[in-house]
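Write out the 3D structure for:
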Amino acid sequence: MTTLIKNGVIVTASDTYPADVLIDGEQIVMIGRDLATAGHEVIDATGKLLLPGGIDVHTHLELPFGGTVSSDDFFTGHRAAAFGGTTTHIDFAIQPIGGSLKEGVETWHQKAEGKACIDYGFHMAITDLRDEVMAEIPSMLAEGVTSLKLFMAYKGVFQVDDTTLFRAMTVAAEHGILIMVHAENGDVIVQRRAKLLAEGKTAPQYHAVAQPALVEAEATNRAVVLAGIAQAPLYVVHMTCEESIEPLALGRAKGFPVMGETCTQYMFVFEEDLARPNFEGAKFICSPPVRQPKDAPVLWKALANNTLQAVSTDHCPFWFEGGVNGRVPGKELGKPSFDKIPNGMPGIEDRMPVMWHHGVNGGRYSANRFVEITATNPAKIFGLYPRKGTIAIGTDADIVVWDPNQEHTISAKTHHMNTDYNVYEGMTVKGWPARVLLRGKTIVDGENWLGQRGSGQFLRRSPNAPVL
C-alpha cells in the first residue's frame, strides 16, 4: 500500500518547502513536486504543514507513586499523545528496590504489551545503585536502553550521593550511555519540609516553599560540574527556573558535555496557582515545583537560543478526585498534608499545540525551531535519529498534517488523557493536528481514532548521544 500526501509544506528543523510525500509501507520513499497520484491513496494537505511526529522523551505511564498509580496506561496515554501530534515517547522504567535493572525493563515491557499504539522506548530510572547494579549498567545496551536517570532528590528513597553519581557518570561514559538527573538537593528538602510540617504548614503551596529554586540550582550546578570532570554526557530533566538555567549555560560555555530540557507547564503555571482555594492547588503539584512568572521568559529564551535542547511534559497524571467510580486514588491523598500529594501533571496531549501557539504564533521561535525542540533534538539525543525526528527519504513515515489555522480550546471535557482536569483548561490555541500518521498509517483523523492496541513498536536506541 502506497500513500501520497499532496500539496503540503514540509517543515523540518532546517528547512521549510512545499512538496508531496510518497509513503510505501512504513517509510518515506520519495519527496518531490507534482508527484503523480495514480495508484496511491491520496491525502490532500492543501493549506497544511507537514511536521515530523512529536517525540516526548519524559513520561510516566502507569507509574506507582505515593500509594497510587498514574492514571494513564500505555493505551490511554498513547492515544492521547497521538491526538496531540506525538507519535513517539520514552517512558521511565523503574528499577525495583532491591532488584535489578533488567527486572525494571521487563516490568515496563509487560505494562506496554498489548496496549502500545504509538512507538516507544525506555529510560532506566535507577533507585538502588548497589555495586552489582553499577556492574549491570553496560548490559542496558543489549536491552536497547541507552539512558539512565539518577535522583539527587528523594532522600532515603531514590537519592544517590556524589560518589555514586560520579561513579555512574564514569561507567556510563565508557559505554556511550547518557546520564539524566533529577537535580534537587534532597538533603535540604527533607530539612525544610520537616520544619514546615512541624509548624503546621500543610497546604499545597508549601510544597514549593520546601523545594525553592536555589535547591534546584545547587544540584544542577553540582551535576554539571561533575559531568565536566568526568567528561560524561549529561541531560538535566525538567528544568524550571533562571537559577538552574544559569549553571547549565555556564557549563555549556565551558565546553562541558551537558544538555537540558524544560517541560511545558513551567511556562504557564506558577507558585501562586498552588494557593488556589478548595485544594485546587494540588492539581499543579510536581517536582521540581512550578516557579515564578519571572522564570517563564527565561525558559522561552533558553529554548530559542539552544541553552535548552528540548521540551517535554513529565506527563504523570493523577485524578484530582480519585478513589470514586472505580478510579484509583489521586490528589486527594494529600489533603492532610502537601507531602502526601502525588507528584505530577497531565500534558502528553497538549505539548505540541501549546508550544506551537505560544512559541511560533507568539514570535518566540520559528516553526523550524519548534520542530527541533519537539522532535529532531529528542531523536538525536536519545538515539532515534534519523529513523525518527525528521521528514526525509528513508525515515519512518511519522507525519503530522498540521493545520496552522485551526483553533481549539483545551479542556478536560474534550481531551483524551485519563484524568479529570487539564492544566491548560480554557486556553485557546491556533494550530492543531488535522491528521496523524505513524509509520505510514493514519492513527488520528480529525476527531476520529484509527489506531490499534498493540500496534506500537518498542524502539531499541543507539548509544553515544551527541551533545547538541
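The two ends are 37 Å apart (CA to CA).
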